[in-house]
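User: tokens in, sequence out, please.
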């Protein structure tokens, strides 16, 4: 058992520990139940719960969630448009987000899917320093999809 000021009382019975806690006007809290013998501490339980909740909230706030951002292109994308989209992809990857690259085919473009594949391969090649291909290009209906994630 550990006292209110952090002093070690050694191994005591449950009844003795309850008496010590009651005399100090605090609660007896079991800190590590799996230890042999279990470790208990005399403290204010309300304050203990509040501190634990504060730690959990701080840990949750520091945690970064990884989002999936989507960039849509066409198979016949112009050079400047491609550069603009690639700059946006770099920005998303640098922020730690995954990027879903989508090539949309319209009309007769479906007959030339290799053009879309070439665009996605070009993106993968230019991004290989900062990103890895998580899902290789595959066709889903009238669009081709590839997922990039930060290295």
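Assistant: Sequence out:
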């Amino acid at each position: 058992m550990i006292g209110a000021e952090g002093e070690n009382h050694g191994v005591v019975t449950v009844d003795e520990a309850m008496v010590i806690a009651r005399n100090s006007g605090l609660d007896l809290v079991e800190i590590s139940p799996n230890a042999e013998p279990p470790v208990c501490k005399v403290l204010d339980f309300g304050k203990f719960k509040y501190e634990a909740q504060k730690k959990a909230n701080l840990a949750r706030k520091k945690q970064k969630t990884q989002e999936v951002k989507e960039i849509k292109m066409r198979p016949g994308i112009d050079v400047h448009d491609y550069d603009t989209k690639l700059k946006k992809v770099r920005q998303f990857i640098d922020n730690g987000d995954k990027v879903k690259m989508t090539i949309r085919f319209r009309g007769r473009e479906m007959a030339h899917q290799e053009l879309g594949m070439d665009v996605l391969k070009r993106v993968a090649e230019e991004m290989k320093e900062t990103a890895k291909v998580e899902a290789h290009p595959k066709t889903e209906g009238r669009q081709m999809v590839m997922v990039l994630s930060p290295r």
